[in-house]
């Protein structure tokens, strides 16, 4: 992550946490690009990297796309896209192109191969570095029964943040090819 991205992440990290309950778009590229709303997640530090962890249930159309693509873009609105967040969180990409159905314009990510939703104020580009399944017998019983009654436990996608920028902000330096490692240095 370049210095501009680090500064921007510092500025918006509190907003990301505050925005999550209202919804953030998580978009994946590939043959069938898609977006979905997430309301849970965490921002943290692993392996010397800034990491966003996204909990995704296996029945989401997005789930196999993430397994394959190993990258995504979080498009973080400034509390102004409630309608689009509800639609992205109720329609499924398996029924057709969700960007077109909702009317969401996109542009390619700067670092990862995924679409960025242009109407959202901030973009956070992420590369999945680890995936882990939540397990019934390793989860608080009350939470398991309330949140996962159907046994539909989340998979946690732990993703290094490789770029973070504002919609009309100064461009971060372009990186060529696939997302380059920006942490995990010895
Ligand atoms: C506010 C809100 C928050 C949501 N948070 C999550 C989440 O954190 N993880 C998840 O798997 N689904 C979450 N969902 C549900 C998905 O967004 C929804 O099932 C969506 O239709 C999946 O789209 P897809 O089938 O195209 O992947 C949320 C929905 C809403 C409305």
What does this entry look like structurally?
The strands form two sheets. This protein has a seven-stranded antiparallel beta sheet, with helices on both faces. It has a single domain (3-166), classed as Roll (Pnp Oxidase, Chain A). The chain has helices at residues 3-19, 62-69, 82-88, 98-102, 141-147, and strands spanning 24-28, 34-38, 42-46, 49-57, 71-76, 106-108, 115-117, 122-133, 154-166. The chain is globular, with a radius of gyration of 16 Å. By secondary structure, the chain is of the alpha+beta class. The two termini are 16 Å apart. The structure holds flavin mononucleotide. Flavin mononucleotide binds at residues 23, 34, 36-40, 55-57, 60-62, 86, 89-94, 98.
Under CATH, the homologous superfamily reads Electron Transport, Fmn-binding Protein, Chain A
Strand numbers in spatial order across the main sheet: 2-1-5-8-9-4-3
Task: Report the average pLDDT across residues.
Answer: 92
What is the number of helical segments per DSSP (H or I, 4+ residues)? Answer: 5
| End-to-end gap | 16 Å
Largest sheet: 7 strands, antiparallel
Query: Any guess at the CATH architecture?
Result: Roll
Assign the CATH topology: Pnp Oxidase, Chain A
Task: Kindly give the count of domains.
Answer: 1
